[in-house]
């Protein structure tokens, strides 16, 4: 399938700077009132990697990703996609990047096919190419049975799949996904995992945010851990987790104190 499996890396494609990583964040910083949400974050996502960004709720993951993809302007810092600055050249950067934000809003009074056709037209993709890719994506996402169903009536799993389809439609080189498996049933999750692994095997790069450690261990080859707006560890999965599990490393790094239900003696009475 063209949309998932072919990702040229030569310099003739937009952002084809040979030495540039898939994504480079430099000194990203964001403050809301008195709260430092993201504190001068530096992060590099290598080309061809399946990169996992983990952290507790409130760690700054979503804010960092929103700045990385051009949805939220940073107070300081830079975001570059294959060497293209997201804020000084947003059109070129967004042409080589597919984004699935957490809580994605989309036109809901359209069917899946209509939505993909509409997105393709907005991106200026030729009609015949849009039609071909739309059919392939609906097939792969197993959404053909919902041909007459409006997006507003989709289940959570179906919404995640059509959201991923919109992110893949223009054949990006990098996918940035914020909690793509949250509230997704096991069958839909298995389909999404297979699609993302195929995308990486075809030469694409993925940055996935999640707080589910077993999922990240299953999919990702490289990880970063965020806590209190900072990256506290980053590197190859085996290096970051050491001799234990990623969850054990995560708990140690973020300084979570686990009480295991202490003080709930009334539950056993």
TrEMBL record:
Cited Gene3D superfamilies: P-loop containing nucleotide triphosphate hydrolases
Domain of life of the source: Bacteria
InterPro entries: AAA+_ATPase, ABC_transporter-like_ATP-bd, ABC_transporter_ATP-binding, P-loop_NTPase
Basic and acidic residues bias locations: 1-11
Region Disordered, residue ranges: 1-20
Subcellular location: Cell membrane
CDD domains per UniProt: ABC_DR_subfamily_A
Keyword line: Antibiotic resistance, ATP-binding, Nucleotide-binding, Transport
PROSITE patterns (alphabetical): ABC_TRANSPORTER_2 (PS50893)
Name of protein: ABC transporter ATP-binding protein
Organism: Dactylosporangium cerinum
Species lineage: Bacteria, Bacillati, Actinomycetota, Actinomycetes, Micromonosporales
